[in-house]
Design brief:
7 helices; globular; six-stranded mixed sheet; alpha/beta; binds magnesium ion; binds guanosine-5'-triphosphate
């Protein structure tokens, strides 16, 4: 798949995969983009990209995914990863507690560099390694609730929840974007009416799609 914007696509969303080294970011991506898993994958150097087109509601969305390197020495140009990103999958490894503890650092980085509307989905990866578990599901759920993130446990190896994780992020981005577009339209409408009539608008009708969007909060799944 190439990186250009397809004429047939309705939207192009930039998203990022972040988290400590070896938590499984590249394998989550290769599972989602190519349905591949590599037991012997090498650490990512700098950043890599992949694309996949998905259909959400009646819209065709091209998702551009930046797979960043977890290793500290590659993180000098971090701000460019976040520029223009609408969503992030923040990944930890359920078998290594340190990767969960480092989430505070990652969340600080996300908030420092990204747009406040960025959709963040927290993923506890390697759920197939139950016998090596160091982080309980409830701990992931609590952190997600506290930080207002979506959450699920995944296994790139066994292909558990990988599709759902990406689709949930894209769906949420679509909802947030639609809401913003509508708000902009309403604001423009207000402006032109105020200019035209010289008085305040009394009533604004919002369609059912937006009402539904407003009711959706975050989702916890595992
Ligand atoms: P960096 O590129 O260094 O940031 O690491 P990464 O987060 O991209 O990790 P990567 O995908 O390269 O995976 C690291 C190791 O974990 C590899 O040996 C993978 O095979 C393994 N791995 C990834 N996902 C899973 C999973 O769901 N289950 C199991 N058992 N192993 C996994
Ligand atoms: Mg990688």
């Amino acid at each position: 798949m190439d990186g250009s914007f397809d004429e047939e696509c309705d939207y192009l969303f930039k998203t990022v995969l972040i988290g400590d080294s070896a938590v499984g970011k590249s394998n989550l991506l290769s599972r989602f983009a190519k349905d591949e898993f590599h037991l012997d994958s090498k650490p990512t150097i700098g950043v890599e990209f992949a694309y996949r087109t998905v259909k959400i509601s009646d819209k065709l969305i091209k998702v551009q995914i930046w797979d960043t390197a977890g290793q500290e020495r590659f993180r000098a140009i971090t701000s460019s990863y976040y520029r223009g990103a609408l969503g992030a999958l923040l990944v930890y490894d359920i078998t290594r507690r340190s990767t969960f503890e480092n989430l505070t650092k990652w969340l600080r980085e996300i908030r420092g560099f990204s747009n406040t509307d960025m959709v963040v989905v927290l993923l506890g990866n390697k759920s197939d390694l139950v016998h090596l578990r160091e982080v309980e599901i409830e701990e992931g759920q609590s952190l997600a609730k506290l930080e207002n993130l979506c959450f699920m446990e995944t296994s790139a190896r066994e292909n558990l929840n990988v599709e759902s994780a990406f689709l949930q992020m894209v769906t949420r981005i679509h909802e947030v974007s639609s809401q913003k577009i509508l708000e902009a339209k309403v604001a423009n409408g207000l402006e032109s009416k105020q200019i035209g009539e010289g008085k305040q608008i009394i009533k604004i009708d919002v369609d059912s799609e937006v009402s539904a969007t407003k009711q959706i909060s975050c989702c916890i799944q595992y």
